[in-house]
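Narrative of activities, Objective 1.

The group set out to show that a structural description can be obtained from nothing but a protein's sequence at a throughput compatible with the screening campaign. Below is one input-output pair from the validation batch, recorded exactly as produced.
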Amino acid sequence: MSASNILICISGSISAYKAATLASALKKNGHNVKTVTTESALKFIGPAALEGITGEPVLTDMFNPGHEIPHINLSEWADLIVLYPASAATIARLRMGLAEDLLSAVFLSNNFRKPYWISPAMNINMLSHPAVVENLEILKKWGARIIEPEEGVLACGTVGKGRAPEPDKMARMIEEVL
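Output recorded for this entry:
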């Protein structure tokens, strides 16, 4: 198997810690991994963990000196882009085409030339809200692959659908398509 370039985008969700384990599994399988986070994702997972695992800086800002047009460069670099986990707010920004941060600018600049996966992770009530349901349906219609959330105990203590798939399962799914 040859190495692929995988961009893991991480939004603000308690499930953000799973992205580090996914990155580790993909690196162990020989892939090149970079991460892009929203500012809110960094409230849940620190950049040191992601940088230590990937050997790459965590990218958050479109205006870092020395990183001209990072959204275009990242879209060109990646063979697969995975938004894991995807918060309701980030899903809404993608659906609306807002490029107010690096993560959403990467989404727009990719324009489905390369596979783009979205793994929602949130409370069951948020996940079933008509706005979130409609946003996911539209993103799927445009060409995104929506990874179905799993059922189980959620961070708030509620039991139901809304958990991001476990990192090993995500890694297997990625390996299958690469």
